[in-house]
Amino acid sequence: MATGYLEILRARHALRLLAGTLVGRLPNATAAIALVLFVRADGGTYSLAGALAAVYGVANAVGQPVLGRLVDLYGQPRVQLPAAVLAALAMTVFAFRGTDPLPAAYAAVAVSGLFAPPLEGGLRALWPSVLRREEQVHTAYAMDAIAQEVMFTVGPLLVTVCVSVWDERAALLVLNLLGVLGALSVVVSPPSRAWRSAPREAHWLGALRSPGLLALLAAFLFIGIALGSITVAAVSYADGHGGDAVYGWLMAGLGLGALAGGSVYGARQWAGSPERRLRVLVALLAVCYLPLTLTPGTVWMVLLSVVSGVFLAPCIACAFIIVDRHAPRGTVTEAFSWLVTTFTVGASVGTGLAGPVVQAGGTVWGFGLPSVAGAVSLLVLLATGGVLAAPVRGGVVAASSENDPNRAPEPRFSSGDRA
Predict the structure, then answer these.
(1) N or C: which end of the chain has fewer CB within 10 A?
(2) Left (φ > 0), alpha (ψ -120 to 50) or beta: where does 168 sit?
(3) Mean pLDDT over residues 351-372, rounded?
(4) Which element (helix H / strand E) includes 237?
């Protein structure tokens, strides 16, 4: 199973790009918990901490596609590194000034979220210029999805380590310094410096002029809602079954399931259209959420959380391939950034919806919401099957392979050439 992943990591520059991207994204991945801990240590309320975290999230959702479009227009080094530095400086200002005055605190957090560099979309744009075969690119997408699960598990642990060794301010400073160093490692690499987006048609909608991409984003909004709602339902369950420790086990189980599912999914090549495959994966995801409504004892509930996460990473990895196939020429980084933004917004909406649902119907109804959201995502994919069946030719794979000056001549492959 691991052979395909080892082959990817042995490719020149691959490990550096993956590691640099993950480190560069740490400030973004840990922002919510780091902000909450800092605000509480500074004497602020949980409401203020939540509000600041929400401002960061909204600003980040706005900034990702905008910066992604700038990357497509001007290249990675000229956008990614300045954005990382600005985001870190803004968070540094917040760390030293604290929450007083409040408008300045909100402004600093908003600027930090807005300028968080789109390293995630940038890495996916780079894979085709680093790897030699289309199958390897697809495996790299699966490995990317797995690495995200690891990062979102390790990130909060790193925050708590920094807090225990130093304090909450140091955690913010260290994580943002690591973010700049990670971005720097990526943008000074030869693939990043050599990468150029394919020529693009001038259009104010950019990547959003692709009907297939819009369909995918609509479906992934509801997958984000499912993931966001399950975190709130898990809190409600944990309150009656052991508290924070049980909540941690449930979230760890969800991540472990995603890690296992992504590992198996990326270890083999799949026949057939990725659009059709995504419909199957989303259906399985919705079905695996349903047993959570049984709310059994803690041990069984943790096992069910593992099962519920199995198809999440495969869904994300498959979506990366579909973005590749449907992104208009010259908009690949922006297109991947839109997927990130949509998923993040969906998770925020899910968190907001789950609260009233749990309040009105209890924990069982809270766990029912992820399955309903997954079913709606499947309905969106089924309803838009026509536009998803017609991928745009000349997407990221073809565009990126054309712009690597160090690449040996080989048969070209296009993102629209294979099912």
Answers:
(1) N
(2) alpha
(3) 90
(4) helix 211-239
Whichever domain contains 29, its CATH number is 1.20.1250.20
**DSSP E strands, 216-276:** none
- Dihedral sign for Cα atoms in the order 74, 79, 81, 82: positive
Same domain, 102 and 31: yes
* Token representation of residue 24: 């560069």
CA 370/CA 373 separation, integer angstroms: 5
Domain that holds residue 60: 1-195
Angle, helices 274-289/312-326, rounded to nearest 10 degrees: 150
**Closest to 381 in 3D by CA, of 340, 332, 326, 307:** 326
Same-domain status, 127 and 227: no
The residues, any chain, with a CB within 8 Å of residue 104's CB and separated by 6 or more, are 93, 97
Query: Can you count the helices (H) and strands (E) in the chain?
Result: 20, 0
State the total domains in the chain. 2
């408008």: which residue's tokens? 103
Q: 3 and 64 in one domain?
A: yes
pTM: predicted TM-score of the whole model, two decimal places: 0.79
- Among 180, 195, 210, the domain boundary falls at 195
Which of these ranges, 21-25, 333-337, 387-391, has the smallest mean pLDDT?
A: 387-391
CA distance 179 to 22: 9
Specify whether 218 is located in the same domain as 130: no
Would you say 290 and 356 are in contact if contact means Cβ atoms under 8 Å apart? Answer: no
Read off the pLDDT band of 403 (50, 70, 90): very low
